[in-house]
Amino acid sequence: MSLSTRCLLCRLSSLSEAVIRSKSHFVKYIVAKANIRMSAVMTGYGNVKLINGNEIPSEAIMIDFRSDTVTKPNNEMRAAMMNADVGDDVYGEDPTVNELQKLGANLLGKEAALFVPSGTMSNLIALLTHCKLRGSEAIVGDESHILHYEQTGAAQFGGINLRSVKTFADGSLDLDEIKRKIRNSKDAHQSHSVLLCVENTHNRCGGRIVPQEWILKASQLAKENGMKFHLDGARIFNAAVALGVPVSEIAEPFDSVSVCLSKGLGAPVGSLLIGTKSFIEEAHRCRKALGGGMRQAGILAAAGILSLQKGPIRLAQDHMFTKQLAVTAQEVGKDIVEVDLDTVETNMVMLKVEPKSGATPNSIVRRLAESTEKEVHAVGQDVRLLAYPMTESNIRIVVHCNNTPEDIKLAQDKLGYVFGELKHNDA
C-alpha cells in the first residue's frame, strides 16, 4: 500500500471517529434536553406545579376542592389493582369485572350491570339503548349533566333529540312541563318521547338530593306514557348516605341507573350502568360500538369493588366537612358571598358571589389559588385552595375522600384570610 493511500485511510478513520464522537455528544444533548422538558411538563418550571393554570410551589399546601373526580386511589386499592385476577372482559371472561358488576347490581337491587370507562359513556349507552330509533326524544332537565357536559352525544351518535324542561332548585323537574312536552302521538311530524332522565344528587344545583316523593311521581308519569326512566346517579351513594336509606331504595323506580365509581367513592376510573339483564345485554353491544370494551379491565375493576365496599362509609364524613366549610364561608364571607346552609345536603357547597362586592367567581377562585408574602407571614404557611367557578355567579366547592380534617381547618383559615382581604380592599 502506498504512503498516500495510508495517509488517506488514516484521515478517513480520524474523521469517522470524530463523527461518531459528535453523534454521541449530540445524542446525549438531545436526551438531556428531553429529560429537562419532561421535568418541566411534570413539575412546571423548577419547583412549581402547573395545575389548572395555577402555578403552585412544591412546598405549598394544596387543597383541591375543584371536584370529587380528583381523588387518588389509596394504598389498599393500589395493592388490589396490582394483584387483580384478570381475563378478557369483552368476552365476559374477566373474573374481577364480573364480580364488580354483580356487586353493583345487587347493591342497587337490579338484575345486571356493565362496567364502562366513564359516566358520560354510561349515560350515552343508556340513551342509545333505550332510544333505539333515530329521531327519538329524551326529556332532560335544563340544568342536567347530560345536557350541559356530555357534548349532546345522544344527538351526535344516536340522532336522539334532548328536550329540556325546567329544573327546580332541589334538582327535581317541572312535572306539568314534562306532561306538556311528552310527544307520543302517531303524527308523522313529531318525535316520539321515549325516555325521561333525572340526576340525583344534582351537580349544578349544588349536590341537592332529589326528593324521593317527586321521583315516584315522575316514574308513574313515565309509565303512563310508555316511557323508560333513567337515573344519572353519578353520586347516588351520597344521596343514600345523607338520607340514611339503602341505595336500592333510591334506584328502585328506575329502569336504568348510571353510577360513578371515580368520584366520592374513590376509585381511579370507571362507572357502572345498571338495569335488567336484557337491557344490559343490549348495552354491552353499544359499549363495544363506542370503543368502551376494555380487555384485562380487572385491574380497574378491583379498585371499583373496594370503592363500593368501603367508599360509602366515608361519605358521611365528607358531608360533615362540607357543612363545616359552608358555615365558615357564610360567616367570614358576608358581603362577598352568600351561602344557603339549608341547601348544603351532601358534599358540595355553592358560594354565590354578591354582585355589589365587585368580585367575580373567577377572581375569587384565582385569589384562593394564590398566596402572598403577607399572607404566609400572617398565617405561618403557604396554603393554596382550588375551587371551581361553576357559573357566572357561583363558586362550587366539592369535598372528597382525599380531604383530611387538617385540610378542612386550613381551608377555613384560608377562606377567612382571603375574604377578609377582599373586604379590606373594598373598604
Q: How would you explain this protein's 3D organization?
A:
With 427 residues, the chain is α/β, with parallel strands linked by helices. It folds into 2 domains: 60-71 and 314-426, Aspartate Aminotransferase, domain 1 (Alpha-Beta Complex), CATH 3.90.1150.10; 75-310, Aspartate Aminotransferase, domain 2 (3-Layer(aba) Sandwich), CATH 3.40.640. The strands form 4 sheets. A 7-stranded mixed β-sheet has the order 4-10-9-8-7-5-6, with helices on both faces. It has a 4-stranded antiparallel β-sheet with strand order 11-12-15-14. Strands 1-2 form a two-stranded antiparallel ribbon. Helix 8 (212-224) links the parallel strand 7 and strand 8. Helix 2 (75-82) runs antiparallel to helix 12, helix 3 packs across helix 12 (298-332) and helix 12 (298-332) packs across helix 15 (405-426). It contains 15 helices and 15 strands.
Structural key phrases:
alpha/beta, Aspartate Aminotransferase, domain 2, 2 domains, Aspartate Aminotransferase, domain 1, 4-stranded antiparallel sheet, 15 helices
- What is the architecture of the largest domain at the second tier of CATH? 3-Layer(aba) Sandwich
Indicate the mean pLDDT: 90
Number of helices: 15
Question: Any low-confidence stretches, pLDDT <50, length ≥5?
Answer: 18-46
Q: What is the number of strand segments?
A: 15
CATH fold-level topology of the largest domain = Aspartate Aminotransferase, domain 2
Going across the biggest sheet, name each strand in turn.
4-10-9-8-7-5-6
> What is the H-and-E element order?
HEEEHHEHEHHEHEHEHHEEHHEEHHEEEH
Shape: globular
Largest sheet: 7 strands, mixed
Number of domains: 2
Structural class: alpha/beta
Q: Specify the CATH class of the largest domain.
A: Alpha Beta
Instruction: Tell me roughly what share of residues is in helical segments.
Output: 40-55%
